[in-house]
Amino acid sequence: MELITVKDKDYSGKRVFVRVDFNVPLDKNQNITDDTRIKAGLDTINYLSGQKAIVILASHLGRPKGKPEPSMSLLPVAKRLSELIGKQVKFATDCVGPEAKRIVDTARPGDIILLENLRFHEGEEANDENFSRSLAELADCYVNDAFGSSHRAHASIVGITNYLKDKAAGFLIEKEVDALSKLLENPTRPFLLIIGGAKVSDKIGMLKNLLDKVDTIITGGVMAYTFIRANNWETGNSKVEYDSIPLAKEIYKEIRKRHLEFHTPLDHVVADKIAEDAHYFTTERGTVPIGWIGVDIGPQALWEYTDCIKRAKTIFWNGPMGVFEIEPFAKGTIEIAKAIAESDAYAVIGGGDSIAAVNKAGVAHKISHICTGGGASLEFLEGKGLPGIDVLKK
Ligand code: AMP
To answer: Using one digit for the tens of pLDDT, what is the confidence trace for 130-140?
Structure first.
């Protein structure tokens, strides 16, 4: 997929509206607890500022539902960004209107401005025309670098491009789209899909779309129990997404037609409850005994899955193999993260919990690409166009 990128343009002296994803977690004292998303935007910001553009940054944070909410202000982000860049970032207390305009009008080439939370206005999520126009009035050009928000048709992602025709993708979006496109366009075989976690309906469409691309699929978490259930095997009290069973059955048929290698766990760690003080043991087979809950893949499954990882040349992983937040149930997920890191396959990881697992295992630096947008990467791989990316195509 070819995008118009910032490298295609000259921004010298121009006012550039840059949509970033600074939706960082804050504690109750509004301290940023993880600044990964701010750091991910630095390349584009530094590049544009270096080009002597007036850089106008805009983001959402949290879900303030269309009205100002002091606990969701981007002011702490402006402070952290100033530290990271080593230069004062100006802060506008509103993203549209006279205050935003005044700060932009008095800025000099190379200056960086951060606008207050876009979602303090209802018009953002509604993709409202007037709100889109008000945002556009601040600038001459548009850059989107918020991959994690690009599956949303919001004013700062889509509406604004009706008014700012000079538009481009930032470096982060370019990197994300390149990494995910490699999975869809001619992946080196064998291509292994590892799919787990709890939100089955969010991921099963992606799994279906990838059936024509992958050679092997391994499953864990609620995804695995939903497939086991779809085969009418016993899942005990394990969490199953019953609404997705018809689609799981359909996928089984497609898998057989294509002769794909498909695995549910050969054995499980099962518990009497999902808690630190649970009683638990390892089963000897791929079903879950009545009264028990499947909480992790067992050692035989781990051995088999590790073997699939060793054989793979391309890997996409989304979703933990078990309830990895609880120490005794974390092994499957952590060992899968380590096995991916050790493999020489081109490996892409998406989804907050899989990323947390590679961080916990201390192997994030060994992964080919870590997606910053879980939902956006799933929709991309589902083959759905992302509204924010479609408007940036060459
Ligand atoms: P997701 O956002 O879909 O990737 O789901 C991540 C969540 O799935 C984590 O919070 C895990 O604790 C949870 N999870 C993984 N395996 C299981 C399981 N067998 N039963 C219940 N929850 C699970």
So the answer is: 999 999 999 99
